[in-house]
């Protein structure tokens, strides 16, 4: 197959995967039938009502007499089971795309732009980097669970070279501040290079980032902004139906909405939040109604992977102002590009994000430019895996500038996701509407 026919390549890959999956399902069904024929493994089946009780001896409820047991919340969607080696689908799709670029003797970002738009656009844009400085959440020390990543975002139109310089200085400022308070160990980074201090409340991370931006004689909310990855799905307790925002402090969805509204009201420099809660349509839209005119409300794990997102119908009951796409596992180039088009048509900003275990390969930088993503979520501005992406973005930006085709993303605009309610009809208007309907009925 011609590697330039990316859609055909990806269809072959997915067909192969479906065949392997069918074989695996058949094997598992055969093993289950053989096990049943032998009388099973002797394990006593657990009743559904017993399974909802957590870890008490004898299966007894932990609730005291006279008190009702909390209703267990069922997850929205079961986690997709992937075959071992499913990541090879993504790798093969990327390899074909890179090969097509080499065969056609054109830059990779131009080839991807052709796949996305059918032709090379007259003007092309470099994505705005979304750079992680601090990582918190359940996996980090401290009581703070409700913020997984504290990120900084330069203003639209700032050259990538300047963005990198400022991001590194912000990172250095935060690291030095943490070392002064907690010792040398505080400057150690995790697998994405982010700093992992022991925080107990979100204000600590927000304040130190604003101080770092101010120390560079920049204005938070004008020259540099803050984005938060909240990973709401990870802090939700399905047994209690509450979010554990901080150690020992849980909130029901209604209270979580008020918590975020109040916090964002005090920090106008925050322009994006990712996954503020799980996909609870009523409460999600209530939060959007309160904050979407001040910042982007983005979905990551609230949407299925790109391949399945293409099959999902978008409704007015659940909306976002941005979506995060990741090229990993069995997601192909075609899945990402078509999902981006679908979400852009639904007025979503596109964020392309890196994956865990990244190398110094710069494919994602070219892809973000080619597909016209507004943001590229990179990680911390340290180590070769991420600096390589920055350097590649600088190269592309300089090349587009020489060709006279460099454009910039527009200013941050936050459309109100929830439309305002329709005005109530004045007295007499309802009667007139009824008369019009009756007249139309008579004519028919």
From TrEMBL:
<feature type="domain" description="Enolase C-terminal TIM barrel">
    <location>
        <begin position="123"/>
        <end position="410"/>
    </location>
</feature>
<dbReference type="Pfam" id="PF00113">
    <property type="entry name" value="Enolase_C"/>
</dbReference>
<feature type="compositionally biased region" description="Acidic residues">
    <location>
        <begin position="424"/>
        <end position="433"/>
    </location>
</feature>
<keyword id="KW-0456">Lyase</keyword>
<feature type="region of interest" description="Disordered">
    <location>
        <begin position="24"/>
        <end position="63"/>
    </location>
</feature>
<dbReference type="InterPro" id="IPR029017">
    <property type="entry name" value="Enolase-like_N"/>
</dbReference>
<protein>
    <recommendedName>
        <fullName>phosphopyruvate hydratase</fullName>
        <ecNumber>4.2.1.11</ecNumber>
    </recommendedName>
</protein>
<keyword id="KW-0324">Glycolysis</keyword>
<feature type="region of interest" description="Disordered">
    <location>
        <begin position="417"/>
        <end position="444"/>
    </location>
</feature>
<dbReference type="InterPro" id="IPR000941">
    <property type="entry name" value="Enolase"/>
</dbReference>
<dbReference type="InterPro" id="IPR020810">
    <property type="entry name" value="Enolase_C"/>
</dbReference>
<dbReference type="GO" id="GO:0000287">
    <property type="term" value="F:magnesium ion binding"/>
</dbReference>
<feature type="compositionally biased region" description="Basic and acidic residues">
    <location>
        <begin position="434"/>
        <end position="444"/>
    </location>
</feature>
<comment type="pathway">
    <text>Carbohydrate degradation; glycolysis; pyruvate from D-glyceraldehyde 3-phosphate: step 4/5.</text>
</comment>
<comment type="similarity">
    <text>Belongs to the enolase family.</text>
</comment>
<dbReference type="GO" id="GO:0000015">
    <property type="term" value="C:phosphopyruvate hydratase complex"/>
</dbReference>
<dbReference type="GO" id="GO:0004634">
    <property type="term" value="F:phosphopyruvate hydratase activity"/>
</dbReference>
<dbReference type="InterPro" id="IPR036849">
    <property type="entry name" value="Enolase-like_C_sf"/>
</dbReference>
<dbReference type="GO" id="GO:0006096">
    <property type="term" value="P:glycolytic process"/>
</dbReference>
